[in-house]
Write a structure and sequence with these properties.
By secondary structure, this protein is mostly helical. The chain has 17 helices and no strands. The radius of gyration is 21 Å and the shape is globular.
Amino acid sequence: MAEALGVDLGTVQGRESGRRPLAKMKAGAFLDLKRRLLALGANHTALALLDAAMDADRIIEATLAPPERSDPHPLAEWVHTRDTAHMIAWAVNGTPPPALRGRSPSRRGPVAPAPLMGAQARDSFFANLGDAVEAAAQGGDSQALLRRQALYLTSYDRSPEANTWAAHALHIRRAIATAQGGSPRWAEARYTATALARRGDPIPLLDFIDRSMADDDAAEAANLNYWAYWVGALREPQANDHFMADRALTGWDPVTLLRGLARGFEESPGYVDLYAHSLWALLTAHTWLPQASPALARSLAGRVARILDAGVISPRSRRELGAVHYVLRDQPH
């Protein structure tokens, strides 16, 4: 590997072990490395996740050593994506990103099999996230992005102590889980409801769908725009939540969003009602989607049928998934 890349052995070992973080490379050298790895036959999926991994490193580093008050936290600077969140989850609880499960080969030498943080660093990470949430709570809407993204990441903490703190922090925000579309608090309400669902409390998410999305055009558009960004259909980085206000649903590929929702529909059973409503809204807005990707439509129809048969969804989700299945099921082979 060192010979193929034109570097010394210590450089490769340093990159593999983390002693020479890729984030410290010059931008041009990093681009050259990615292109060289691609030419050498590196896995495309893994290469595509390097940027998200570096974003995760930056968030973790800044959280472990909080920046001075005058310097913004990375969680306050841009809206992070699903790939970045999955990388952070890999580091704090050892759950590999879905895109990499079964793909990582055994590594050589004295290198950890996964980027799992030690217990002390993990405890510090979550404690500092909690401090960030509480400090941002005093900042009003100007700190909403930091507050909601830090709060969401605390839901990855599986310790018994975290359950008590996070449950309290989330439940005191349950009232905002009915914010209206177009409200500055709508995105925070969505994050709060999904984080509570992750911790086993589905009721706020069901209430959010019923009271803060359904029959609200601004909220339905905001939800689809956010999903498009989360799953990579909207590729441009976003510094704030303003992109969610686009009711014309421009700037992202509907087929890519359908594919992302279809994949997440099976990977994230705790959010099945949110996925169900979002699929229904997407297919309502773009009725041509099944014809654009018949194979995807047929595969998704099978997944929807299994969820309907299982019967573990709300009455609204059953109605909406029934409509989704009707649209998807008759695609030609």
